[in-house]
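tool_log.txt
---
The assistant was asked to compare two proteins side by side. It first ran the structure predictor on the initial sequence, then on the second. Raw inputs and outputs are pasted verbatim so the downstream comparison step can read them without reformatting.
(1)
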Amino acid sequence: MRLDRILFVGLILALLAGCATGSGSARSRPAAESNPENPKTKAAALYTDLGQKYMAQGKLEVALENLNKALAADNNHADAHTVIALLYERIGDNAKAEEHYRRAAQLVPKSGSENNNYGAFLCKLGRFDESAVYFERAVSDPFYKTPVVALTNSGTCAIKGGKLDVAERDLRAALGRAPDNSEALFQMATVLYRRDDFFRARAFIQRYEAVGQSSADALLLGRNIELRLGNGDAAREYTRRLRGQFPESEQARSLDASGSR
C-alpha cells in the first residue's frame, strides 16, 4: 500500500478509500524500515488498513486507535506513519502531522510517494523552499509510478512561492509526461497569466477545458484572461458559466461583490 498526496486537490478521503494515484514504489528496504514478512509488520499493516477504512467512514477516533496500534506493533511502518499523518492533518494538528510525514520520509528516503507527501504538506504550511527538496527527491525515484504528481505539486508550490521560472519548468515536465493532466494545464495557465502572456495562457485554459474539466478557479481565470485580451463577449460567457455552475463559490461571490458582468 502506497499513498500519494496531491497538493492541489483535497483528496484525503479519496486516498483513504483506495483511490490514490497509484504511487507504488518498488525499492530496496533501508535497515530501519519494516520487514514485510515480520509478524509485527503484518499486524501493523492490518491495523493501518483498518485505520484507513475508519477514516473513510469519518470514524476518526476509532481510526486513530487502530493507527496507534499499528505503530505500537511496528514503529518503522512507513504506511502507518503516512495514514496517521493524514488523520492529524485532517483534525488540524499540524505538529503531529509533520512528525509522522517526516518519519515516513526518513524510513524510505528514496521513495517518491513519501517524499511527495511530505513536500505537499510543507508547501501547505508555506515552507516552499523546504518542500522543493522533497519534491526533487520524489521525482528522482526511478521506481515512482506517478512522478507527474510530484512535478505538478512542485510547480504549483513554486507559483505560491513566487518562483515562476521553476513553476513553468516543472509543469512543462509534468505535461511532457502527461499532456492531458488537467491540474498541470490549469497551473500553466496561471503561470502564463501572471507573466502577462495572455495568449498562451488562453491556450492552456482551452486545453484544460478540452479534457472535460470545469472549476470555479478555471472559469474565473478564463474570464480574467479574456478581459486582458480585450474580448468582452468571451469574458461575459465565462462569467455566465461561473455563476451558473458554481453560484455559491467564493469566485462567483467575488464577481457579485464587484458588480461584474
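(2)
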Amino acid sequence: MSSLNILSGGAAQGLVGSLTPAFKAHTGIDIAGEFGAVGVMADKLRRGTPADIVILTAALLAKLAEERLVVAATISDVGLVETALAVRTGDPEVTVSDAAGLREVLLASDAIFVPDTKASTAGIHVANVLDRLGIADEIASRLNIFPNGATAMRELAASDARRPIGCTQSTEIISTKGVTLSGSLPPGCELATMYTAGITTAAAHPRQAQALIDLLTGAEQREQRKRAGFIGDRD
C-alpha cells in the first residue's frame, strides 16, 4: 500500500501522530517519512528525498517555495510552538520569571539536554540564549546535544544525572513519556515559532497531502492542536 511521504520538524510529530488514524480512515493510506531538525529536513528535500508534504517553520517554507520545491499556494499555518523547559517526570518543576532566574536554573543543572544547536529551531535558540546569558562556556561540558528535540527528551527521561533539565519545543516535551513540561522561557529569552505545512512540487499524492493539511489546520482540530502544544491558532 502506498504512503504519504512527509518531511517535518519534530515539533509537529505528536500532532501528526494523533491525526494519523483519521487521515488513514479518510484517504486509505498511511503516513511515512521523517521528523527532525527543520534545517536537516529542508536539506533532505533539496537533495531529492521523496516527499509529498513538508511541515517546517514559516520562514523555511517561504524559502522552499522561492526555490520551487514547495507549491506556494498550498502553504498553510498550523500554529505557534514555544521553546520551553522540561524536567524528568517526578523531579521538581522549575519556573523562571526572568533572565536571571533562567541563568540560575541552568547553572544549577548538572546536565542540560537540547536538540541540534546548528540546524534545529529550538537548539539554535538555546545556543543564542546561552551566549546572551554569558554562560555558554561555563556550561559547555554539561550540554548534551542530540539530532532533534524528541531524542533529547528521551535521553533526559533516561538520564541518571542529579539535576538534569531540558530545553526544546513544547510539543516535543508533551509527546515524550518520562518528561514533563516545566515552564516557558522568560521574557527576553522566549521564542514562539510558527509552523506551516505545504505540498511539494514533486508530490506523488498531492490530493492526500491536501487532506492532511486540512486535518492539521481545520477548526475541528483546534483542541487537538492545543493538547499537542500549539499555543497559537490560525483560526
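---
observation on (2): Residues 53 and 199 are 4 Å apart (CA to CA). The beta strands are 3-9, 30-36, 53-57, 76-88, 111-115, 143-146, 164-169, 179-184, 192-199.
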